[in-house]
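Pasting as-is:
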Amino acid sequence: MEDMRETAAQFSRESAPSGEFVRQPNRFTDPVTAEAGRYVLYASLACPWAHRSIIVRELLGLQEALPLRIVDPIRDEKGWRFTLDPDGRDPVTGALYLSELYLGTDPAFEGRVTVPAVWDTVTSRVVSNDYPRLTLTWETTFAPLHRPGAPDLYPEPLRAEIDALNDELFRDVNNGVYRCGFATTQSAYEAAFHALFARLDVLEERLGERRYLHGDAITDSDVRLYTTLVRFDAVYHGHFKCNLRKLAEYPHLWGYARDLYRTPGFGSTTDFDHIKRHYYVTHERINPTRIVPLGPDPALWETPHGRG
């Protein structure tokens, strides 16, 4: 189909001339060391990139070693807000907005302020917003701080396979839904749409043969896929025009997602209210009325999954 016109981008700096959404690089990529209590994880329950860090923190028992601060799900023109805290200020730094911590670390920063972000209480600076690396850091560098019996989410024999699948998940699924939703031309949208559903078909077949993506145990790949799947029918199907099929129309993917949802650390950190209010209220170019839909019914996630 030929492009009829180009529409205004939700994030103009991340829109290519072709109309494709091109996600900005991560600004802060310093290493994070395994020092209990030194770092604070800033995250949003709405954001899939942040959600993966929250899940891994729970699975590995890092709650005391890595304090967590949750931002308001609705992001305004100044970015992520601390309105969930008393007086609307972060109790760790006194900031009103996460952007204050970014600019305090790099006064020349002009990009989009993102979560997750890791604050170093010793140096008083943001040391990482590198979401692809953070879960791996919790899984490897923070190993001395893991709870007894914590799962090995990044086992050495599977790392090459996990890394390869994670790359495919990011390109076609995790970021693929954004490439659909933030596309500003028909051709860019269609390319992302076809890649997304082709990958979901492959994953549906893969999960028909095994309980989790790499066999009988949960790995980092499952965390990354879950955070997109749990938002799919509530947000991406309609809001981002990813509407060839709903997640609930994939027997294996839907059962797999509900299996993970019922696993401690997954469903307990999933907040559909935060998710829907963030996407439908914050993305005003996509949803100018800012009406938040009432469905789908979250009780569907509690239905039997028939796996395991």
